[in-house]
Amino acid sequence: MILQDKMVIRSKRQLADRIMEMELEGELAAEITSPGQFVHIRVTDTYEPLLRRPISIASYDRDRRRMTIIFRAEGRGTQILAEKAVGISVDVLGPLGNGFPSGQPKPGETVLLVGGGIGVPPLYQLSKELTAAGVRVVHVLGFQTASAVFYEQEFSALGETRIVTADGTAGEKGFVTDSLRAHPVDFSVYYTCGPTPMLSAVQEAYAGKPGYLSFEQRMGCGIGACFACVCETKETDSRPYVKVCSDGPVFPAGVVAI
Ligand SMILES: Cc1cc2nc3c(=O)[nH]c(=O)nc-3n(C[C@H](O)[C@H](O)[C@H](O)COP(=O)(O)OP(=O)(O)OC[C@H]3O[C@@H](n4cnc5c(N)ncnc54)[C@H](O)[C@@H]3O)c2cc1C
Ligand code: FES
Q1: Rounded average pLDDT over 19-30
Q2: What mean pLDDT comes out for the span 123-137?
């Protein structure tokens, strides 16, 4: 069930350059059904900025009614959110969208998780759930530079973790696809979230393999009513377009035209 909740900020810390982690508590957290779902946050009580900001759920604990978000304080809305103090509440709509289907791989199988920048957070809960189910996870996480890297230890605690930076200041130098070409991984399913060119490159590299891609499209309503997030599909006859907010943000490989 989608709720509009006043969630209380229980903790907040800076993880990397402009990257904030925030733990929120409220009934909404009990409604989360899968890793990769997102929330839509109203950052002020006034009409400026008017639109909510979509942010992925990085991890959750339904029993404790808590969830963690990780976001880059960049534009006006996310900067306002980053400045909020621990103890106050924020207006959160969610959980929204359809997340990653974590139940598919069998125990003992290896899966590949590929994240880019601010697309890394939703892969964390996914990895936790896959690992708990006995699945072996390999993470390949791409960032611009060393100061933008976050959650390396958290992912490493779950499985093999490769850090890749565009400028080579941390981990391997290059893009995630360079690392995957140089050191191939034998896996059954891949899951990826990040900038569209990265999603496209990963999908191309593993054409024919089962995979799931999470898209970050600009959004208005977040609930399927405004058509702001429409994307064309490759299924032009049966389903020419999808709404990222309500049909996604996660789609099987080969569905969205990128
Ligand atoms: C499903 C989903 C999950 C996301 N998860 C995260 C996350 O976990 N962490 C994180 O840092 N960012 C995430 N994003 C991107 C994030 O929503 C935008 O970066 C953020 O809304 C920009 O807001 P701003 O106030 O910083 O920028 P502004 O420039 O003030 O934003 C202006 C408008 O553009 C929209 N917008 C700008 N960039 C994007 C973008 N890349 N994607 C979608 N809308 C955008 C904003 O929502 C807002 O309506 C996600 C986006 C989507 C769609
Ligand atoms: S954001 Fe309004 S329909 Fe998707």
Answers
A1: 98
A2: 97
